[in-house]
Amino acid sequence: MLPDAILKGMRIVEASAFVAAPLGGMTLAQLGAEVIRIDPLAGGLDYRRWPVTADNTSLFWCGLNKSKKSVTLDLASEEGRELAAALVTAPGPDAGILLTNFPPRAFLDYDALKARRADLIQLTITGDRHGRSAVDYTVNPRIGIPYLTGSGTPDEVCNHVLPAWDLVTGNLAALGILAAERSRRQTGAGQHVKLALEDAALAVMGHLGFLAEAQLGNQRERAGNDLFGAFGRDFLTADGQRVMIVGLTAKQWRSLCAATGLADNIDGLGKSLNLDLQQEGDRFIARAHLAALFAPWFEARTLADVASAFDAHAVCWSRYQTVRELVATDPECSLANPLFSAVVQPGVGELLAPGSPLAFSAFPRAAVQPAPRLGEHTEQVLTDVLGLSSAQLGGLIDRKIAGHSPA
After folding, report:
1. CA-based angle 330:336:341, to the nearest 5?
2. What pTM value is reported for the model?
3. Of 7, 156, 246, 284, which is most buried, counting CB atoms within 10 Å of its CB?
4. Domains identified in the chain, total number
């Protein structure tokens, strides 16, 4: 009989807030690791982070803490910090792992924890490599992204809502923990892994050629909704629907030309401009002329007509829709997609919630578990991991060192 999760047996203690570290912990939890999130008694910095329900329950917090266990302690007290350190360094071959994005002091100090457990693995996320604070909305301006997005003038900036570097960093954190844990299995030694949000962003900018382009003296122009370096942009249909089309690869381009019946017109355009429109770069140069050719085709057809033609020719395209439309009508964002489960989220109600996007052939996809209630597992974890007695637990709760698990 197969194990029910690929990381079953691994234990990680998480002390975190906001996106990157909670995402890293949840990524591991949804693969079967036991992830114990430690928070202050009243909740952490992100416990009320927007979006929230009418009664101020954070959908953000619920979304990033699925499948974890929640322990609440008075982290301002020496006794509470001692309990947290004991949880981090508790025995077990697959334990002794800490994930945090808080400054490495008090119970998060690596050297102090290592003195208690020599093979400790700690991954600490910082804003920049010097340990200073940074978030997506400060990293992006530094690396130039707001001058590349949108279609404004060169002196205007355009921020965006997706916390890309938090997401990259969160997944790198999960990868870093797994790599360090593999090294520990081979050598018996733990280590302190440091990961800076800004470095994650700089690395991606280098991987994608942005840095090399600038080093060669080029300033990339803003392209608005056009796909940089090839042909792709949005068009309006006869019934007012907006669609995005992409002709990046040769196959995608051929499919688009065939579906619209504009191949001869496009060939003529290429000759008149002295461009080879089979080349993606030349398509980008000719993007305004190509858009003028394609626009009437869309304006004469409804979304249903466009969908029929495009799907018949395997065109790479999509319809623009709001998040509310996605949730209400799109089968990919429904129980028809095994990524999702219906969960009852405490404080919110029944929600459609995603699990791990990874699908392993040797392990069944784990059912999605809701985020815990704050402090839900305090008594269970202190009993199971630290072996505290009922009397000891009662004393900690009475003195408000440990939180009481909600009824």
Report:
1. 105
2. 0.95
3. 7
4. 2
